[in-house]
Amino acid sequence: MTNYHKATKSNKQVTISFKAKAFSIGDWTIIKLPAKESAKLPSRGQNMVKGSIDGTDFITPLEPDGNWNHWFGLTPELQKTINFAPDKPIEFKLTTVKQWPDPIVPEDLMSAIKSSQPAFALWQTITPMARWEWVRWLRSTANPETRKKRLKVAVSKLNSGEKRPCCWNRNLCTEPSISKNGILLQP
């Protein structure tokens, strides 16, 4: 039997609700979405959501876990604001958003893009969602040599008019410190 979830394909906002306990992987504090709720999302890849915990509003990307589900990290700031306790289940209500915020772009990527006027000009016109994909693609390797190659490839692709990185599996976990072979590690 194949582990496949059919995602909702629409432009409508999707709202999901669930309770979950956080767990740790290394320095990360993770919330893993239940498979039933994750399957309701419009993409098996990254989804941007807004939510509220104990009256604190936040916006965050839901990252794919490599197994057709999603997760997100609870930042230390959010943990402090909500009086986080590791063994306490947290109730979530998350709604997908159409307008993505700009990602924090790694310095090496921005420096590489700015080194080429055509690449930088295209970068300024692409959507925030496309920028998130470039950032995810770059960070999906822990190998410094591969990262250097990807910086060169990113500039080359942007110079040739490509708005998104191609030929990689957007459904994999792209945080090497908490995944193995694109699959989110378990606690």
Question: Could you characterize what this model shows?
Answer:
The protein is α+β, with helices and mostly antiparallel strands and 187 residues long. It folds into two domains: 15-96, AF2212/PG0164-like (Elongation Factor Tu (Ef-tu), domain 3); 107-184, no CATH class. Helices cover 28% and strands 24% of the residues. The strands form two sheets. A seven-stranded antiparallel sheet has the order 1-7-4-5-6-3-2. Helix 3 packs parallel to helix 6 (144-159), helix 4 packs across helix 6 (144-159) and helix 5 packs antiparallel against helix 6. The radius of gyration is 17 Å and the shape is globular.
Based on the model shown, name its key terms.
187 residues; alpha+beta; Elongation Factor Tu (Ef-tu), domain 3; 2 domains; 7-stranded antiparallel beta sheet; two-stranded antiparallel ribbon; 6 helices; 28% helix; globular; disordered N terminus
In short:
This protein has 187 residues and is of the alpha+beta class. The protein has six helices and nine strands.
CATH class of the largest domain: Mainly Beta
Q: How many strand units?
A: 9
Main beta sheet, described? 7 strands, antiparallel
Shape: globular
Widest sheet: strand ordering? 1-7-4-5-6-3-2
Number of domains: 2
Radius of gyration: 17 Å
Order of helices and strands: EEEHEEEHEHHHHEE
Report strand %.
Answer: 15-25%
Distance between the termini: 25 Å
CATH homologous superfamily identity of the largest domain: AF2212/PG0164-like
Low-confidence stretches: 1-10
Number of helices: 6
CATH architecture of the largest domain: Beta Barrel
Can you tell me the CATH topology of the largest domain?
Answer: Elongation Factor Tu (Ef-tu), domain 3
Q: What number is the mean pLDDT?
A: 92
Q: Give the class from helix and strand content and strand pairing.
A: alpha+beta
The proportion of residues forming helix, as a percent range, comes to 25-40%
